[in-house]
Amino acid sequence: MKQLTSAQVRQMWLDFWKSKGHTIEPSANLVPVNDPTLLWINSGVATLKKYFDGSVIPENPRIANAQKAIRTNDIENVGKTARHHTMFEMLGNFSVGDYFRDDAIKWGFELLTSPEWFDFPVDKLYMTYYPEDKESYNRWIEVGVDPSHLIPIEDNFWEIGAGPSGPDTEIFFDRGEDFDPDNIGIRLLAEDIENDRYIEVWNIVLSQFNADPEVPRSEYKELPHKNIDTGAGLERLVAVMQGAKTNFETDLFLPIIREVEKISGKTYDQDGDNMSFKVIADHIRSLAFAIGDGALPGNEGRGYVLRRLLRRAVMHGRRLGIQETFLYKLVPTVGQIMASYYPEVLDKKAFIEKIIKREEETFARTIDAGSVHLDQLLADLKAAGKETLDGKDIFKLYDTYGFPVELTEELAEDAGFKIDHEGFKAAMKEQQERARASVVKGGSMGMQNETLSAITEKSVFNYDKDVLESTLEVIIADNERTEAISEGQALLVFSETPFYAEMGGQVADHGVLKNDQGDIVARVTDVQRAPNGQPLHQVDVLASLSVGTKYLLEIDSRRRNRVMKNHTATHLLHAALHHVVGDHATQAGSLNEEGFLRFDFTHFEAVKAEELRQIEEAVNQKIWEAIPVVTIETDIDTAKSMGAMALFGEKYGKEVRVVSIGDYSVELCGGTHLANTSEIGLFKIVKEEGIGSGTRRILAVTSKEAFEAYREEEEALKEIAAILKAPQIKGVPSKVASLQEQLRDLQKENAELKEKAAAAAAGDIFKEIKEANGVTYIASQVQVSDAGALRTFADQWKQKDYSDLLVLAASIGDKVNVLVASKRKDVHAGNLIKVLAPIVSGRGGGKPDMAMAGGSDASKISSLLEEVANNL
């Protein structure tokens, strides 16, 4: 077996499959594009689903890749086991209706065992297979595998709901008896016993059926085109080939661990307690790659995943004695390890470091808040005479403040308390069930549509014409091809078309079809791309249509022009965002409609009002400069050398269109555009908002809609001017400022009057001093307009030595407000109010010297005041 670096293993995999005629698909962004069923790209095949479900036909049916992926469903196991990771690389080879079982097994065996390639010892390899899949069993024997190394496993069948499915055969490497202390042997594999001896290195899925949840597996129908979908974990392959005890002792992780050693002053011991090193090494990889791909820490979705990973890594850093921010310092090491195939981490190093450091600093403050919360919980337990910290409280510390259970347990036990582990597990289970319930359903691939996949007729989109004559090549009605149709709805393919198929955020053209008499025979309501790329016109049929006949295709030019204004403005907006906000503000989606444009982009905070003003001004400046919009067709390498920016989620072929607006904006784009920026007329941002963690959205309008938006604002200002009796609109700001000053003076005067009234009332309240168990106290109901007045009373009480304790209650509207203030250490205000508040059907809490509560039963205020003495 060859001794290879991780970079060499990855490259050898790709080189092998390239030698077998595969196209190497580059690793896709970790943030899924146009797939709401996935939070992250979580496998090698996730980005290829469009090929397997038949919605897109690939140029080459043989594909191979090395795909970065994130999975966090087993995050608690990361660091505890040898092979659990949150980010990993999946190596894959795929056949879309081309080769199948025979070649997949033959080539897989060749790659693993040939001296020219990985050179694994044949006697160390074991294969599992689906018991009904006798063909795979026979094929393994044909390539040279001993029958004793073939293990039938009932679970070896891959399916995730409706769609492509089939048996799979897995390949395992036997690491020997050193990893089998109980000498269980092959039963470990046959009985699926968790072990470190037999390591799965590859899974070959033989996708040959359309799964249907409504029928038994034996009745699944064969796929029209059978597929091969494989996955080999790079981390596992590297661990086997480098003879590492775990994945973490490979060149993918050890450099990170060595840096953590330097920062912490601790030494990594592969046979000792090294969980914290592993967690940090794993999590920083996920953070660096995910942030580099546009995801940002936040409170929901992908953002919550990243925040949780970062906080978990920071807490493990503290377990190693690291108190300062440190994770961001590991980003260059991650980038260097992966640079041969993933240069983006080093390219975006400064931005990734900035985001991680900022999040670390924020979490440091959160940890302090969590520590205060834990101290309060333990103090309350002690005061109540309890000895166990409740599981729900442990979960809150874990979920809200990022405290690992181990840390909470350690601090609680140091203070003499026990831990409610079962309660914590129950709270965790509730959260997981809520999370599962919120997941978008339907992650499986769609069913293959043989009718659409079979369309092979050529169709050309003409960018330059709004009207042209073209031959009707295909008619599809009710998912079947037909030669003619006279009513209803249909899908049509023409030899040439001026109709733009929806793509890249630009909506489809609408229009009409006319016969040779000039009569309208169909209305085009949508245009999408067929699996082989042809524009597929969805039409309402008004008169007879037949294949082979020529028709006049006429787009709605007014609609196209309005869409082009917004699309060209989107390019200017994207460039302006880069100039004003930063290069990290990359596109995360867009929509160019008739009446507006929508642009989603990655950014870690709301765009400031001044920044929005600068962006809007920059776009309009380019409109007023009347810059020609130049489009050229060239190859992808030339386009990149021109500095062309690829739009998010788009897949480009060998020939691409480059849209240049002077030197201000150069992008790869297949959409339609104006000839000159001046045709946009006017640009106005109408809204900026957050739509998810780390993702912002700008809504804007152009031309007529922009004028109308400005006119609407002008009319509103005129109304305000009339109300304020300002003779001109420009006088409104000074008039408003004057009114604000008057309001502040009145508020100040009102506050002073309230203080005087409270002082007068306090003179009577503070006269009634009572005593119980050696504690002097004042307990009174007061008449006030808001809860703030209670604090005013408390402030006045503190300034003089009236009593040891103050309890005030007030009925304000339909609510009851209660305040407890204490000057004695043995009388805890927070604990006392927790006893008193339920009397008025309320709850509350606070610090030892001051606490407040709210309630709803004003009729029990007197009972609450009477109960004070019984609790002293």
Structural class: alpha+beta
CATH homologous superfamily grouping of the largest domain: Bira Bifunctional Protein, Domain 2
Largest pleated sheet: 9 strands, mixed
Total domains, how many? 6
Q: What's the β-strand tally?
A: 36
So, CATH architecture of the largest domain?
2-Layer Sandwich
What does this structure look like?
The structure is a single chain. α8 packs antiparallel against α9. The chain contains 24 helices and 36 strands. 37% of the residues lie in helices and 25% in strands. It has six domains: 244 residues, 2-Layer Sandwich (BirA Bifunctional Protein, domain 2); 132 residues; 50 residues, no CATH class; 97 residues, Beta Barrel (Elongation Factor Tu (Ef-tu), domain 3), CATH 2.40.30.130; 153 residues, Threonyl-tRNA Synthetase, Chain A, domain 2, CATH 3.30.980.10; 105 residues, Roll (Diaminopimelate Epimerase, Chain A, domain 1), CATH 3.10.310.40. About 1% of the residues have low confidence. Strands 1, 2, 3, 4, 5, 6, 7, 8 and 9 form a nine-stranded mixed sheet that branches. A six-stranded antiparallel beta barrel has the order 13-16-20-19-18-22. Strands 31-32-33-34-36-35 form a six-stranded mixed sheet, with helices on both faces. β1, α2 and β2 form a beta-alpha-beta unit. The protein has 872 residues and is α+β, with helices and mostly antiparallel strands. Belongs to the class-II aminoacyl-tRNA synthetase family. Its EC number is 6.1.1.7. It is found in: Cytoplasm. This is Alanine--tRNA ligase. Its cofactor is Zn(2+).
